[in-house]
Amino acid sequence: MALKSFIEVHPDSHFPIQNLPYGVFKPQPGSSPRPGVAIGDYVLDLSEIASAALFNGPLLNNSDCFHQPNLNKFVSLGRPAWKEARATLQKLLSATEPTLRDNATLREKSLVPMSRVELLLPVQIGDYTDFFSSLHHTKNCGLIFRGPQNPVLENWYHLPVAYHGRASSVVISGTDIVRPRGQAHPTPGSPPYFGPSRKLDFELEMATIVGPGNDLGKPVDINNAADHIFGVVLMNDWSARDIQAWEYIPLGPFLGKNFGTTISPWIVTLEALEPFACEAPKQDPPPLPYLTEKVSKNYDVSLEVHIKPAEHEKPSVVTRSNLKHLYWTLTQQLAHHTINGCNLRPGDLLGTGTISGPEQESRGCLLELTWNGQNTLSLNGVDRKFLEDGDEVTFTGYCKGDGYTIGFGKCSGRIIPSAP
Ligand SMILES: O=C(O)/C=C/C(=O)CC(=O)CC(=O)O
Ligand SMILES: [Ca+2]
Ligand SMILES: [Mg+2]
């Protein structure tokens, strides 16, 4: 029989006992941030569970990792500690275990309705990198930005291409995004202009949260890379296409991308995703030995993007994709990032790159969906080429299990007008 919690969880809820994603929250506006896990419509306060001495396994019984304002310390402990925490929490929340179920005082202290809490960034992000790992997205961007001659450059099939993003502007879901201003150069031969971006876009991505890091000069072996991945979140790499197209040669994305990046609040662990592992796409040509894994896997995570214009009550779906379309795997991305000796640190954020699927309806950004504004998308009667002020963009992601759903919650942000 499937594992069940004493807490009522709707079958469509993203947060059954099989999930238990980690986040950081404030139970009340004045209280200090602390780690929690999502269970149904509640957040379980891990600082209270630790104070009650219920993390009683050998690795966590004396740890202060749940008395921290972020999850960096916990994620740095590595897989044995994560497994111990998950076993403790699944037992504590199960329908047959009386410890928490029958202790009204502890329940009152430790279970907070999710509707009441403020969710914060789950980790302090030291560094943020963004990959470029969907072949469909790469082909489409190549056609749009560089033309039909050679849309996918030769290096792409041999290494997971990436750029260093900016950690300071990574924000939690629900944070408004100010339309960036910058230079653009729409007409070749005439001078550039300066102003609010006219081609503001979202990018549908997920991102790895790094667990234990590696020492400077000591690369992570591809076959151990999964031990450095704590879990995964949804990520929106907001992109100003007009600024990007003018500035990016030859050093890559800069001000067209670093004005804001939104992540979802709940980190879904690789343990919870394991039942949804699937074979990664076949790589041809085969990668070099340092990128060749014994088992090459992706995860079957359904993804959706919704846009709600200010004047609409309800959002419209604009794309449906899936993490399983990614060409380079999360573990290949991580191993490649360290192969030159670069050190990753706990809490680092590694974006997957835009996750476009093979169909037109599974394209992961407006640049592709409207072909750089040549076509128009109809959102229930309202036309869009790029994002307008007041638009709210929401990503969701989930895996459908037998009688339960492992979900990522929401990653959303609303565009507000740029400064005058
Ligand atoms: O092809 C380009 O020049 C640029 C592509 C992107 O903007 C994509 C990027 O940020 C990486 C990704 O999300 O896949
Ligand atoms: Ca991106
Ligand atoms: Mg960005």
UniProtKB/TrEMBL annotation:
One of its GO terms (molecular function) is fumarylacetoacetase activity. Signal peptide: none annotated. The keyword Magnesium applies. GO terms for biological process: homogentisate catabolic process; L-phenylalanine catabolic process; L-tyrosine catabolic process. Residues 18-122 form the Fumarylacetoacetase N-terminal domain. Residues 133-413 form the Fumarylacetoacetase-like C-terminal domain. Belongs to the FAH family. This is Fumarylacetoacetase. It comes from Arachis duranensis (Wild peanut). The gene is LOC107482939.
